[in-house]
Amino acid sequence: MTEGVGREAGRWEQQAAAGGARRRRALLSVADKTGIVDLARALHERGWELVSTGGTAQALAAAGLPVTPVAQVTGFPELLGGRVKTLHPAIHAGILARRHRPDDMAALQDHGVVPVDLVAVNLYPFAEAAAAGATGEALREEIDIGGPALIRAAAKNWPDVIVLVDPADYPRVAEALAREGGVPPAVRRELAVKAFRHTAFYDAVIAAVLAGEAPLAGGEPWPEHLALPLSREAVLRYGENPHQAAALYRLAIPHRPAPAAPASGAPGSDRPGPAGFVQRWGKPMSYNNWLDALAAWRAVQDFALPAAVAIKHATPCGIGVAATPAAAFRLARDADPESIFGGIVAFNRPLDAAAAEMLAEIFLEVVVAPAVAPEALEILARRKNLRVLEADPGPAGHGAGRWEVRGAGGLWLIQEADAPDPAGARAGWRPVTRVVPTPEQWDALDFAWRAVKACRSNAIVVAAAHPAGGYRTLGIGAGQTSRVRAVEQALALAGPAARGAVLASDGFFPFPDSVERAAAGGIAAIVQPGGSVRDAEVIAAADAAGIAMVFTGRRHFRH
Ligand SMILES: NC(=O)c1ncn([C@@H]2O[C@H](COP(=O)(O)O)[C@@H](O)[C@H]2O)c1NC=O
Predict the structure, then answer these.
(1) pTM above the 0.90 mark?
(2) Are both 143 and 45 inside the same structural domain?
(3) 247: in domain
(4) Are 296 and 200 part of one and the same domain?
(5) Residue 218 covered by a domain
(6) How far apart are the first and last CA of the chain?
(7) ipTM associated with this complex
């Protein structure tokens, strides 16, 4: 505590306890009436005067409590359809007067203003109105003006005024008043912090909604100041390691509601997750679970056919596409049967029983899919340590999913997410070698290119069609500090299967050495962004080996 406020507050409490040199006054003005009658009754029983705005006053009067209408205090009726109710010196001077300043108190006396000692306010439900589709004038009327002014005034004067913005805090304040005749300074300060967060969050939501499709950028090149409305979804057991504290927040920009989870009658109670996620089974998600599940879910969006992406430590260890989720999973699993142990698997199609049976055979941490059939959930629920998430594949709305924010060393970096390449993107690819890919190789290169996008840089993917249909990664070299080492890792994992396979590189080859290694491993076709100053040498190496190579003109680094 600072500013000697505890001393001032103590004086205030003594005054109150001394039998009330004056009657204390509370201003109650709440859109959400939850708990307000109980709070008002507790105050009334302790001799407080209750002052309220229209709807709140009605609710209190209906409960048999005596209320002073705010209009009686201000001498004005509520104006402009409620746009101006409490915005008046008779209210705000009463809140803001510093009780230890004789000049402030004298000013109140001179102007017949009564001090306000407690403010309980919550705001017009702007976010709910936006989520329900309100626009234009109707939405604008949901922007609360007087409420934030009351909250901020009371929070500024927290040494003398109790500010309440959350009904969950009413009982403890009522108890403190009953027990001690006042609320300890530390608690008043804590309530003030909560109040400023409340109004800051409220305004951040309004700005984001008014900014529309570009909530972060505000529709213009990056704004100088940016307030992101974040809502806590969960306090996590710990972060990346047990000695790190962690919580999960989501960008709380109203958007269309996620589809209701299908009623399954299946085991487990549904646990809501961040916007668009519902946990259908299993223990709470950990920090690393979320990192991996989000990476897997993002990666699987890049494929149009049924796909399975298996992730370990935020980078894929196997990716498969095939006719069914089960067939896709078989390919992803067999790509690296060792690494998938304890992995996270995402699907881009609803999970059926056939896929669930295969998943339940091995130890996995998390499975993510757009939907999980009831019979599939029954099967997965055999695995006590598995977590099952349903994810909403639809657009996040208001551009919330379009942005990535991450912290590094006290700074925050924001970028547009690396969106999936559109379905026909390869029409823009440019063959640069004498040999051009066969139609089959084009398909395999398309798959490998989408797979390498999901991998940490430097990333190389060796991939091929499967004789029974579909495509799978054979070897992934990711997170390497040199590109040629990523090639070697991918080839080593692929082994003899690399002969005749294709290779994708997330960035250009700075030297021909990677192509020479690929050629030695039997790679038949390569896709890479191109753009190196040594492209000519790289192309010459491919030509010398009889390898087909195409340039995408776009890279997919992932740091
Ligand atoms: N205009 C004002 O002076 C004003 N003062 C308080 N309010 C809000 O009016 C609401 C309560 O209204 P009622 O008691 O009529 O239901 C609260 O959400 C409060 O934040 C106001 N409304 C909006 O700005």
Answers:
(1) no
(2) yes
(3) no
(4) no
(5) no
(6) 42
(7) 0.92
